[in-house]
Amino acid sequence: MLTNIIFSIHEAYCVVAVESIGRQVPIACLERIKDDFSKKYGGGKAATATANSLNKEFGPKLKQHMQYCVDHPEEISKLSKVKARVSEVKGVMMENIEKVRSI
């Protein structure tokens, strides 16, 4: 029973998940979907598509991504943590570069 749900909104995507799955897996799932969608429909195809015109083509792919995330939450969570750590290290490095430039 879905009594506790989490709404995670990222750009134009939204996912609803049971609270026990946490926040990392839904956000990582959204990232996977966004990356795949951008690769497939980037360059203007999505911007010029009419409402619901991509459902038949991308709908099955969306379902595959969601099923993968449900079936592999540990892997998705680990990957999400690694990406967050890489982003954090990148930020520190960028700050250090700026400090060196200002000397």
Plain-language structure description:
- With about 100 residues, the protein is mostly helical.
- The chain has helices at about 25-40, 45-50, 55-70, 75-100, and strands at about 5-10, 15-20.
- Strands 1-2 form a two-stranded antiparallel sheet.
- Strand 1 (about 5-10) and strand 2 form a beta hairpin.
- The radius of gyration is 17 Å and the shape is flat.
- Residues about 1-10 have low confidence and may be disordered.
Compact overview of the structure:
Helix content is 66%, strand content 12%.
- Overall outline: flat
Radius of gyration: 17 Å
How many E-type strands?
Answer: 2
Q: What is the structural class? A: mainly alpha
Number of helical elements: 4
Instruction: Give the biggest sheet.
Output: 2 strands, antiparallel
Strand order of the largest sheet: 1-2
**Low confidence ranges:** 1-10
Order of helices and strands: EEHHHH
List the helices and strands and how they pair.
Elements: E1 5-10, E2 13-18, H1 24-41, H2 45-48, H3 55-71, H4 73-101
Antiparallel strand pairs: 1-2
Helix pairs in contact: 1-3, 1-4
What are its keywords?
about 100 residues, mainly alpha, flat
